[in-house]
Amino acid sequence: MMTCHSFICSNNNNHYYHYHQNFYSVAFGRRATSMAATTPTPVVFRSELKPVEQDLRTALNFPSSPRQRDLVFIVNPQGANGRTGKEWKKLLPFLRSRLGNDYNICESFTSGPRHAIDVTREAIREGADAVIAVGGDGTIYEVVNGFFWDGKPVASDNKEHLKPTALGVIPLGTGSDFARTFGWKNDPYAAVDRLAKGMRSRVDVGVITGNCGQQNYFINVADIHLSAKAGFYASKYKKFGNLCYVIGALQAFMSHYNQDFRIKVNEGEWEFCPQVTALCVGNAKFFGGGMKIAPNADPRSGSLSVVILQHFKWYDFIFNLHKIYNGTHLKVKNVSSRSVHSIEVEDISGRGGVYIQSDGEHLGFLPRKICVLPGAIEMIC
Ligand SMILES: Nc1ncnc2c1ncn2[C@@H]1O[C@H](COP(=O)(O)OP(=O)(O)OP(=O)(O)O)[C@@H](O)[C@H]1O
What we know:
By secondary structure, this protein is an alpha+beta fold.
């Protein structure tokens, strides 16, 4: 069976290792060839010579230096309408010269949605120093979800690795909203410099629990109702860049009804929350390609910032759009904000049709509860 677990590693001697389970594939030979064009010889594609399971053991038992750990770059070649893959190719020589002396550089191109989750888990179990999401918020979201399994953090199989695997980000997406909270632009060279400096900081992660107990993690913003529906439509217009989010919001309004919810904050009493347009839970500040929806959110605060828009009509959205972009909308009538550790949400309208997204990814279930996991992941900042 073709499994999704794979990454290719190289050290400063330009020796490449494919890490993947259960198959060796012509496709990876092709990918590796394109990499070889950017690097001097010798290049050894070990998996073309041996069964991969053997190759995996060999690579793990004989690293180029016992002190060198892996940096695993998970690249979404389709991110930003294909720009991510092109930028990555240009970035690779710089990245190798900047980081190749200290780390084994490993790369994995995602083959489709959710692939990054599996590769991240595999990399953490194999003791990677860091897993770096190369792409947009959807790729970061999948990598973050790979840090967890069955409700618990994934850990290295090698108990000698006391330093946990860190999350890294090379923002190269359409919106790249998570990066904005840190003031980072879609500048991959600046991102490589950050990785080289290697400053780590604990960041919070949000966890959404569904009615059947299913869990989903987010690091940026989870949101319910209109904005989530807008995100769903926006994903069809990515070729228009950041404008896709405004187009998505206008399309979402066409079939939108504000609905009555009830919410419970920090395990308190249920509160009636009438005519909700959108309920957004920010671990970080931005969504929708630069809308500062949760200006008070801080991923290092140990809490989440809940922003609720009520009674909005489409023209209120248009009229206040500039305020949503610059984060001054909290002063607008029918907008409220509060800091929480947990929130439970129920649609009591009986109408249904409520969308939810987690870091821009559409979820097929309504949340029972959304909580913060303070300092759950170490991130390279
Ligand atoms: N090989 C692939 N082919 C198609 N889609 C992919 C592939 N790999 C990953 N994906 C999906 O692409 C989606 C979008 O990727 P990503 O977030 O990196 O870019 P973006 O949408 O342009 O940026 P942003 O989310 O910041 O606006 C992800 O949700 C992911 O599931």
